[in-house]
Amino acid sequence: MSRVAVKIELSADETDELNRWLKSGKTEQRKVERAKIVLRCAEGKTTHQIARELGTRPSRVSKWRKRFAKLRVPGLEDEQRSGRRVINDESVERRILDQLAKAPPQGFARWNGRLVAEALGDVSDDAVWRIMRKHDLHLDRRQSWCVSTDPEFSRKASEIVGLYLNPPENAIVLSVDEKPSIQALERAQGYIRLPNGRAVSGFAHEYERHGTTTLFAALETATGLVKAGHYKRRRRREFLDFMNGVIDSYGNEKEIHVILDNLNTHKPKNDRWLKSHPNVHFHFTPTHTSWLNQIECWFSILSRQALKGASFCRCQTITRSDRSLHLRLQYTSGSL
């Protein structure tokens, strides 16, 4: 007399879970088969009927019927297998991480998997790389940061941010800086026809130098207006000449607040120029925080859109390129 098979009854959640296994394209085929077995058992089919429909053995159907009846859905997962003895346990992992924290061997700038394995002696290269992948360690990558050591960081930063968000009434706030040594490089540019018929744009490796220029710029933070000037050098003399032109364009009636970095040409010990312009007030960014100066954003746009990869036959061409980009940005912001 044959034994009565275990009756399977599924809850709504269990039915949904097993159907998700069947519909998902990422489910392992062995789990798909187990889900089909359980769903057919819930329909009341016999073990031999299910075995014939799925093309498997009755003993396998019986196994997963009993396993599900005892453990439910978690019982359809594979049991833990003994397998090969673990060689690289937590102590080996700790040794690898500790070795990476030490200085690399003499003559090497950084560690790699082979060097770590050689230093430990009893660990393979593959084990080292496996541990590094586990901890998402990439020895060829370098991250840099710059932390301000200015003891008055909070006061200076809040002062500059306050000028941006809530400037004094009837006052002008200017963000001023310079971009030195812009090279006028003349490159042979054009298109190259490849053997497969595709055309690639680019420029030749060789170039001809036509000098350098230094760009001084002042950004009016309220309107986005930029006043710029090109000079051959970056000295106190050129800086004051540029500032004289900027200040004269606004007159002596308005208060002018100028945001600057800590370059020595901006802040001499005895600033006679600043004393002769009582309506001008300098605000210096904290040490190593020139990113607080908004003109740096304009310099970034200028580098990416007008200078990088361009060809200039003389420095005057850079001046026209800067002016064209500035007019374009003014037109775009005015049309928004």
Instruction: Provide the succession of SSEs.
Output: HHHHHHHHEEEHEHEHH
Task: Determine the N-to-C terminus distance.
Answer: 86 Å
Arrangement of strands in the largest sheet: 3-2-1-4-5
DSSP helical segment count: 12
* Main beta-sheet annotation: 5 strands, mixed
| Uncertain residue ranges | 331-336
CATH topology of the largest domain: Nucleotidyltransferase, domain 5
Rounded average pLDDT: 83
Spatial shape: elongated
Task: Explain this structure.
The chain is α/β, with parallel strands linked by helices. The chain folds into 3 domains: about 10-75; about 90-135; about 155-335, Nucleotidyltransferase, domain 5 (2-Layer Sandwich). The chain is about 45% helix and about 20% strand. The protein is built from 12 helices and 5 strands. A 5-stranded mixed sheet has the order 3-2-1-4-5. The chain starts with 11 loop residues before the first helix and ends with a helix. Residues about 330-335 have low confidence and may be disordered.
Q: In summary, what is this structure?
A:
It is built from 12 helices and 5 strands. With 336 residues, it is an alpha/beta fold.
Features:
336 residues; alpha/beta; Nucleotidyltransferase, domain 5; five-stranded mixed beta sheet; elongated; disordered C terminus
